[in-house]
Every structure is written in structure tokens, then in C-alpha cells.
Amino acid sequence: MKTEVLSMKMFLAGEWISKEESIAVLNPQDDSFITSVPAASAEDMLIAIEQAKEGAQIAASMPVHQRISILNKAANYINENSEKYAETIALEGSKTILQARAEVKRCIQTLQISAEEARRIHGETIPFDQGEGSEDRLGYYYRFPIGIIAAITPFNDPLNLVAHKVGPAIASGNAIIVKPATVTPLSALLLAEAFEAAGLPPKVISVITGHGGEIGDILITHPAIRMVSFTGGLETGEKIAHKAGLKKISMELGSNSPVIILKDADLPGAVEATVSGAFYAVGQNCLGVQRVYIEQDIYDEFCSEFIVRVRQYRVGDKMLETTDMGPMISEKEAMRVEKWVNEAVDKGATLLIGGKREGAFYSPTVLTDVPADCTIAQQEIFGPVVLLYPVDDFSSAIEKSNDVDYGLQAGIFTRDIEKAFEAIEKMNVGGIMINDSSDYRIDGMPFGGVKGSGLGREGVKYAIQEMTEPKVVSFKLNYKKSM
């Protein structure tokens, strides 16, 4: 299966620009060449920022109906070219073609939700006379766009996670500069193509391709940038936070997601959901199931059924509709996962299945008896590996679930409503899924975590809150003094 991909250009303030220096975009499945994109320079990023200053003024002055129209037209453009978008996602990244098609559908929904939320950016009246001496004042607040937003996006959802930053930015009247992942820039460029086709005024959006070491610091430290929206790893997020200066920061930094299986759970449903949650998109998923805590009474049965389901997983060519799991994003990443698994086994972990690497492919892997001091027990795996643990009781499962420096989402399987609510209260996460794995999200919900999982919330409505500020308006009315 082949697709035409965008030519070797980046989108700088409404213009498609090529450069002498370029970056090869490779298919991680076999390292075959797809195309190349410009390697932007520091000067290119400075130009994009200068252009975005005017773009921010243009965006802020766009009436709401125009923003709605542009967002819906962009969504329609993607829908009309959906297979092109899906094939591009699958070719440059790790997703299978079926998973890529699902991402395209979500991207369309994200832009449609952005259009809907553009009409709901409301303020409120303020009863100023609640303060003594302010009986002669009336007023309100409204929300205004903050200006230029820097969006730094990851490889694992190269279209929809970009849309989660671009859609709310346009809906709220901001300009935005996107720095996509170096290994998966094509999907972000196709999103820019959709907005150009939709009639978005030039200078409102730029998608600048290049190496983070060359252009990243300029983007995040420039005083004209009023917000940095970053999705990626904790280590990089911490560096950005230290460098960014006085500006808003929104970060989704991944997780080490736990799922609890109690003895009253629907076992077949729990197995199916946790296997999918562990291995969807090769485990390169911030919501991916990494740790499963199973009550001792059902531990052996759960493990047995879990392995049976994992054995059915079909690993191979990601462009085939029959494939469940393709390669990781690079052989380097597969080697990292291999190293972490081997470390755990050397320290006493039991390998139930998997643990095999061939190039960028790493087989679905299940470990038990993993010591707490292993890297794989504490850090985000971001690969197709899941750890199974027996626990004596519910309280122990909660305690162990919270015992990492992450807290994005979690899951619990139980029929006991009391225990479900106890988990809701006691689990330190940004979202908890009852009778589902941690790997569940819709694009309209607030999305983010606590501890090392990040700052702020995405999800269109909630991203718009981050991308706007309230402005208070107060009228002092002389006629009120004479009353």
C-alpha cells in the first residue's frame, strides 16, 4: 500500500517553504525512505515567531462564526481525504492501518468539537455591589486569547494530538506554531494543508520541521510565546519548564498506568480490556496499561487467560488490516525496551511470554515477580510490556498503584460500587475508568494527570480555558449615586 505524501516543504506562516538541509522520514518497519522534510534553522523559527505576532492579531479579530466555519471545513477536508491521512500516519509511525484510520476519525471529531466550543467561550456578570462602596458599579468578565502558542507534539499520535492543540488554539483566537516530532512530521503538515484548504488566514499557523536542538529552545524561550503546550516525556518536560520563563505551560508527560482487578470482576472483559490497553499502538501510548494488580484469589486464572489472549495477538506488517501490532517507532526504542526487560529478568522477574526483538519489532511481553527497584517498574515503558502482580487485598492494590511518580489515568474492575468509589477517592490520578482499563479517552473530556504526569488539562473545552484569560470590565455609573 502506498500513498502520496506532502512534498519536501514545511508550512511557515501560510507559505510552503523548502530548505537545502533536510531530514529523512523513514518507515520504522523496514527503515525505507518515505520522503524528506526541511531541517529548519534558528532563523526560520525566529521568522515564524515574528509572523505569528501578526497572526495572533488576525486570529483574535476573526469573528466566532469564521473560526467555526474554518474548523468545520478543515474537518471536512480531512474526512474527504481520510485514507491519505490514515496511510500517512501508518507509514511514518507505528500504528497499524486500522489504528491509523481510527486516529483520523478522532482528529475529525476533535476539530468538530473545537468548532462547537468556539461558540461557548463565555464570561459572566459580576455583582460588584457585594463589596461595600461598590453599589454604583456594574460589570462582567470575558475571555480573550493569550496570543502565540507553541505546540510541541509527539510521534505516537502524530495527527490527533496536533489537532488537540491546533483546534482549541484557533477556536479561541490564537496563533500557533507547531514543532512536530522529528520522526513523524508528515501528519502535522497534512493538518496544515487542511487548514490552508479551509481558508485559515496566513500567519495564524506554522508547522516548522527540524531538530529540537536547533529550534526548540528558541520556540519555548522567546518572550513573544505566551504558552507552551507540550506532550512528551517527563525528562524533556522538566527541561522545558525550567527554560520557558514567565509563560503558561500545559504538559502531558505520560504515565505508568495501573489497573486493579478485584475477585468479583468480569474476568473475560477485564482480560480483553487490559490486553488491548497494554499493546495498542505497540504500547507507545501514554494511557497504556503497564501495571495490573490482581486479587490473589483470581490471580492464576487471570494470568492464564491473559496469556491465551496475548498469544492470539498478530504482529507483522502494519499496513495489513489483519495485523494487531506493528513495529516500535525505531530500533533504538525497541532496544531500550529490550534492555529494561532483561534488567528485570536478571533481577528475578519471570518472563511469561514475549521478550523477543527483531529490528524495531518487539513482541508482546508479560512479566511477573518484577522487583520494585527495576526501571521497568518505576518508569514509563512506552512499549509492548505489561507487569502482572498478585495482591492480598484492595487496600494493598490502591497503595501499590499510587507508588510511582506518575498519575495520568487508572482502571479498576469490580462489581462493588463501594470499592469503586473508594478507588475514585484514593487513587492519585487525573482520571479513573471503572470496569475499563486506563486506556480510555474521548476527545471532549478533561485530560491530564498529577505528579510527574503533567500540568494542566487538554480536551478541547479545557484546552481553550488554558489558552484564554479572563478580562474584567467594570462600569462606574454616576446615576446610581443619586439613587
TrEMBL record:
Parts forming coiled coils: none
UniProt cross-references to Gene3D superfamilies, sorted A to Z: Aldehyde Dehydrogenase, Chain A, domain 1, Aldehyde Dehydrogenase, Chain A, domain 2
Domain Aldehyde dehydrogenase: 16-473
Catalytic activity of the protein: (2S)-3-sulfolactaldehyde + NAD(+) + H2O = (2S)-3-sulfolactate + NADH + 2 H(+)
TM ranges: none
EC number: 1.2.1.97
Alphabetized UniProt keyword annotations: Oxidoreductase
InterPro entries referenced in this protein's UniProt entry, alphabetically: Ald_DH/histidinol_DH, Ald_DH_C, Ald_DH_N, Aldehyde_DH_dom, ALDH-related_metabolic_enz
Cited Pfam families: Aldedh
Highest taxon above the source species: Bacteria
UniProt GO MF annotations: lactaldehyde dehydrogenase (NAD+) activity
Enzyme class: oxidoreductase
Family in the record: Belongs to the aldehyde dehydrogenase family.
Role this protein plays: Part of the sulfo-TAL (or sulfo-SFT) pathway, a D-sulfoquinovose degradation pathway that produces sulfolactate (SL). Catalyzes the oxidation of 3-sulfolactaldehyde (SLA) to sulfolactate (SL).
Protein name, entry field: 3-sulfolactaldehyde dehydrogenase
